[in-house]
Give the backbone structure.
Amino acid sequence: MTEELVPPLTVVRPGEGTEGFLGSIGVVFKLRGADTNGALSVVEHPFPIGALVPPHLHTREDEYSIVTEGEIGFRSGDREAVLGPGGYITKPRGELHAMWNAGSVPARMIEIISPAGFENCFREIAEMLADGPPPLPGRHPRTRVQIWARIRSA
């Protein structure tokens, strides 16, 4: 009989977590794949007024979002919803989706990503942008597309 690996107990208190900026929204890392044996990751995304996450899709991850502050608009496939605090939404892999701050105050959501791994893309983008605004296309050794491609092939 093989023994199941039990992840270590991870405690993240309110206000804790490494913060970064992804270009239009923020990211606060709460639980990483290493904390969950790769089952999922949890991040928080602050949405400043006017923030937009352009349409994109994931081929390996499902996302589950919970709005905790303000109003966030979601479009997934041909469905659209605007949710306030306490609203939940699923964004299945393979479906084009976008998100935006739909209100007049800053907003925030919790994002559960399953399986884990995509949080590494967020971390690398936040590190890349921490040095200042991105340079002209093709002038940075790491682009978002390159980061996504490398993480997807891992």
